[in-house]
Amino acid sequence: MSSRTRALAVCSALVLALLLAAVLAPLPFAVAYPGMTANVLGNDKGKPVITITGAGTRKTSGQLRMTSIVATGPDASVHLPDVIEGWFRKDEAVMPREAVYPVGNNTEEIAEHNAKQMAESQDSATSAALGQLGRSTKDIKVKLSLADVGGPSAGLMFALGIVDKLDGDGAGHDLTAGRTIAGTGTITAGGKVGAVGGVPLKTQAAHRDGASVFLVPRKECTDARAELPKGMRLIPVTTLDGAVDALKALRTGGPVPHC
To answer: In this protein, which residues make up the domain named Lon proteolytic (predicted)?
Structure first.
């Protein structure tokens, strides 16, 4: 074997070793998938998602479905083949691990953080909904119960569910007009809707569970359009008032915002 041949063989072996190391090395990513959805106007595990005391409530039709994603855990190893596969699949998304798990280094810490965010989101949703209706939080109490879900992204749908149960569209009709409407978005006590991430996967979860309309934070319209299921209508929102008005217009055939 000549010296040139030996050098080429050594270089090839080194390249193969580097490629193998790249394939086997864990990467700082998480792989996310469409998660569960839940009708906030209905029950979850035998309990009403929204329970209101101190005021009369309406019997509602249709559904308002919060949406979620699921992702590989913070301790899971994601490798190059997983990332490549995720880039080419519509029902998967490769996301930086810190975007999925911004706080906490293990499952317990993350679960505690998500539970705290969910509780804060529920309080904000209650304040936003009652404020939108001009009702007092001193007289009306709202309990929200949704098992196995964390984070703040259901805030908008919680608020809409409270509005629908208390007042509907204000003229005796349901906000849903009998439809299955899904959505996502954080909410402040003042009713501002914020971005959440993972929207393309959430539209797929919504479509899977029968929704034909999806409420999306306006800033995430582009993301929502990227993998939008056929027949799904996007309605961008920035505030709870805007979301309520859009659903009223959808029922009556008026002008509805679009992405």
So the answer is: 150-241
Contacts for 12 with CB less than 8 Å, ≥ 6 apart:
none
Identify the segments of the chain with pLDDT beneath 70: 1-27, 79, 83, 86-88, 102-105
Task: Please give the C-alpha separations between residue 2 and each of 12, 16, 38, 155, 181, in angstroms, as whole numbers.
Answer: 15, 21, 69, 70, 72
Token duo for residue 250: 């959808």
Task: Report the C-alpha gap between 198 and 179 in whole angstroms.
Answer: 23
* pTM listed for this prediction: 0.84
> 81 vs 19, 22, 153, 170, 214, CA distance in Å?
12, 10, 30, 53, 32
Per-residue HEC secondary structure of the chain comes to CCHHHHHHHHHHHHHHHHHHHHHHCCECEEEEEEEEEEECCCEECCEECEEEECCCCCCCCCEEEEEEEEECCCCCCECHHHHHHHHHCCCCEEEEHHHHCCCCCCHHHHHHHHHHHHHHHHHHHHHHHHHHHCCCCCCCEEEECCCCCCCCCCHHHHHHHHHHHHCCCCCCCCCCCCCEEEECCEECCCCEEECCCCHHHHHHHHHHCCCCEEEEEHHHHHHHHHCCCCCCEEEEECEHHHHHHHHHHHHHCCCCCCC
pLDDT, tens digit, 9 for 90 and up, residues 171-212: 999 999 999 999 999 999 999 999 998 999 999 999 999 999
